[in-house]
Amino acid sequence: MQKQSIFAEFTEITPSAPIDAERHGWRAKCLQRLIRLDLPVPRTVALSADTVRAIAAGVTPDTARLAAAFGGALVTIRPSPANPEWGGPTTVLNVGMTGAKHAEIAAVHGRAYADALYLGFVQSYAIHVARLDPDMFTAEPSPEALAAALAAYEAEMDEEFPQSPARQMGEVLRSMARAWEGTTARLLREAKGAPSDAALGLVMQEMAQAVGPGLSGTGTIQLIEPVTGAPQVTGRFRGLNPANRKAEETLYLVRDRRGHSLEDAAPEVFAALQAHCRTCRERLREEMLIEFALENGVLKVIDAVKVQRSSRASVRVAVTLATERIISRDDAILRVEPRALSELLHHQVDPRAPRDRVARGIAASPGAASGRIVFSSADAQAAAARDERCILVRRETAPEDIRGMHAAVAVLTERGGITSHAAVIARGLGLPCIVGASELSLNPRDRVIVTRSGRTFREGDVITVDGTNGEVLAGSAEMLEPALDEWFTTLLHWADNVRDIGVRANADTPDDARTARMFEAEGIGLCRTEHMFFDEDRLTVMREMIFADTAKDRKVALDRLLPMQRADFIALFDIMAGLPVCIRLFDPPLHEFLPHDREGMRELAEALDRPLSEVTRRVEALSEFNPMLGLRGVRLGVTVPEIYEMQARAIFEATVEASRRGAAVVPEVMIPLVSAKREVELVKTRIDAVAAAVRTATGADFTYRMGVMVETPRAALRAGEIAQHAAFLSFGTNDLTQMTYGLSRDDAGRFMGDYVNQGVFPEDPFHVLDEDGVGELLLIGSARGRQTRHDVTLSICGEHGGNPASIAFCRRSGFDYVSCSPFRVPVARLAAAHFALKDPDIAQGNKVISND
Ligand code: PEP
Ligand code: MG
């Protein structure tokens, strides 16, 4: 590129200058908007991305001409990428500060002011441009510090501190342009969604000098409180004490009993600032933070950026702006990142309750939870199987800990940062998480944690992880329920009105169902009934049933389980109040319900009043080499039909009972692990017979829907004939992924990290749907199913149902709904709305969405 062509790229920002966000970056565009709104912005020049690229490549810009354009004034140089989220090199202030300029400023504004300005510039130039060690410079300005900084620069660089404004400008521009190209900077911005070739524009602005006999200083102002999003003027102003004009102090913006305020010191400036904020809000359609300077009483608006805010505040701001018709509802929906909602959904430690803080770490994933300490993923899974709340404490986590994290209510690691494995995964799962709690010393072998003050916590002790502010508390803490305020609810209702794929919840217990209702799931998409048999009282009966020698004995045990199951379903139907509830018949191998150690078998022998040897033999006889591919799901339904018959009876009797006292219930009965049409025929015939018997016995009529869980590859391939007997097909993508890859769900963690790192898999397919392989089976299965039965309901109920990318895939594939864990329902509702707005042309076929 020739120099001449670069000259053309310096564009002074005026109301009509050809500034565009792609070429000059968001900051340049934003400043132009402020100028168009008549805000008092100092002279500003934009450098296009091409210019900056050329500078990075070694082209020397004509900075003499640039410096002349500013008439010898000091300038600030700021980054201006296309998207503010992408960051950029550090802003450099007061470029053009030389010995001569120092003398000039000292003569007008005093030596101290000139020293501070010059020292600040020398330091930032040395650190950001010459890349010298920051430790070489003292922070406090004084004539000695300035002389020392200049001397240090000279000693290190073997040359005098540059005394030409044009040279300084050239060096600053080059260093900023090159910093943008650095690997770390690129990785950081790519993590925020920047393309690999993202470009940088730069903005040069005449420095406003916050000095003079009138009120002077710099500050920021915004109209909202950034944590809640509530209307409240916030910000600060730093200037000379308005009373004595001596020491610098920070003033309140709004009148305040505790000290001086800008409102009192300069009411007209304060009013103008508020007016500017309002103008920005209305015309830029966003809550903006204005950065300003008061130059001898004269207001200058230096910059304006979107107010940094919590997720909670971003929801409130988006809804408020739409309610005031400043933006549309669709814009409001699109302004909230679906994943950000999870921050609003969690329990928080009640700030009013006492806190026994034992350590601090990095707040890596929001929310709080109390539970017993476990030191391994296996122990976490064991605790979860006992329905015990546990906190997984690790030095750091690795991919094989994923299942342990699923089982824990919170995660605490001694090491790691905000993007460490534990942090990333916990955020995805919506688990409270603290990482980098280096104040704790962890000894996993002895199963103990020692705090800095010497307190010890052992395995089984209860602690609280407050992932919102990174504090570990002793014992369990009082919790605040998630804050599902009016703005959250409103936004999600707007999202419901635009989305075109349904969202249900996976819910096994009344608690889950209540959470599902709270998050306005459109029903239960998967109720895993086996979880209902792990309670102490039921487990014994369950085991009696498993050990029964004859069909008659088995019936005796099942007759005891029947009322318990019926009560389970009545509770769910009552809570769901007529919304669809899809109940999956018993799925796991029976062996899971039996004890695995000698002590457990002895207890069982006692409970069943049988010899230990017999119990041991029977337990061994039931064990399988590969239980997940063994006698489970529909295979049990075919070979031990009494279990499904009992469950069907419980479902139908509960249907009659719940419908009598509340909304009519149309239960959905789902058969798991199907691989052949005949399995469905056999089970369906028996269940239809149970329904007929219940109708006769109760004298009540009811309807129900029978469906099939498509979670074996064969079921997907044979979905055409299976759909003859199925009103719905629900894709169980956990097992389907396991079987498609031939990869154990429970063991894959051991090498998943290596596989992902080496690019064998782009992501862990158990978390993000493998669209190419498993996805193809979904497409085949859904197309063949629909070919047989055009109105067959299609859904997904594996873990993937709550993952936005997988939701997009299901939507593109014409699915009716996704079903995910209750806490992921709001994220799914909003993500589905985003897809509907961004990609409206996808035909959604014959969907019936229950939202109006
Ligand atoms: C599945 O396999 O995808 C599923 C939802 O069932 P489970 O996880 O209970 O096996
Ligand atoms: Mg399954």
How would the blueprint of this fold be written?
Blueprint: H1 3-7, E1 10-12, H2 21-24, H3 26-36, E2 44-47, H4 49-56, H5 63-69, E3 75-81, E4 92-95, H6 99-109, H7 111-129, H8 143-157, H9 165-181, H10 183-191, E5 200-206, E6 217-224, E7 231-240, E8 248-251, H11 262-265, H12 267-284, E9 288-295, E10 298-306, H13 311-323, H14 329-335, E11 348-349, E12 357-360, E13 362-365, E14 368-374, H15 377-385, E15 390-394, H16 402-407, E16 410-413, H17 421-429, E17 433-435, E18 441-443, E19 448-450, E20 456-458, E21 462-466, E22 471-474, E23 479-480, H18 486-498, E24 502-506, H19 510-518, E25 524-528, H20 536-547, H21 551-576, E26 581-584, H22 598-608, H23 612-622, H24 634-639, H25 641-661, E27 668-671, H26 677-698, E28 705-710, H27 713-717, H28 719-722, E29 728-731, H29 733-741, H30 749-757, H31 774-788, E30 793-796, H32 804-812, E31 817-820, H33 825-838
Parallel strand pairs: 14-15, 15-16, 16-17, 24-25, 24-31, 25-26, 26-27, 27-28, 28-29, 29-30, 30-31
Antiparallel strand pairs: 1-2, 2-5, 3-4, 3-5, 6-7, 6-9, 7-8, 9-10, 11-23, 12-22, 13-17, 14-21, 18-19, 19-20, 21-22
Bound molecules: phosphoenolpyruvate and magnesium ion.
Structural notes for this entry:
The longest helix has 26 residues, at 551-576. The strands form six sheets. An eight-stranded mixed beta sheet has the order 12-22-21-14-15-16-17-13. It has an eight-stranded parallel beta barrel with strand order 24-25-26-27-28-29-30-31, surrounded by six helices. The chain has a five-stranded antiparallel beta sheet with strand order 1-2-5-3-4. The protein is elongated, with a radius of gyration of 33 Å. The protein is built from 33 helices and 31 strands. The chain has 852 residues and is α/β, with parallel strands linked by helices. Mean pLDDT is 91; it is low at 1-8 and 845-852. It starts with a helix and ends in a 14-residue tail after the last helix. Helix 7 (111-129) runs parallel beside helix 8 and helix 14 (329-335) packs across helix 18. Helix 15 links the parallel strand 14 and strand 15. It folds into four domains: 2-206, 2-Layer Sandwich (Dna Ligase, domain 1), CATH 3.30.1490; 217-309, 2-Layer Sandwich (D-amino Acid Aminotransferase, Chain A, domain 1); 350-480, Phosphohistidine domain (Glucose Oxidase, domain 1); 499-589 and 624-838, Phosphoenolpyruvate-binding domains (TIM Barrel), CATH 3.20.20.60. The structure holds phosphoenolpyruvate (PEP) and magnesium ion (MG). Phosphoenolpyruvate binds at residues 526, 528, 587, 711, 732-735, 797-798.
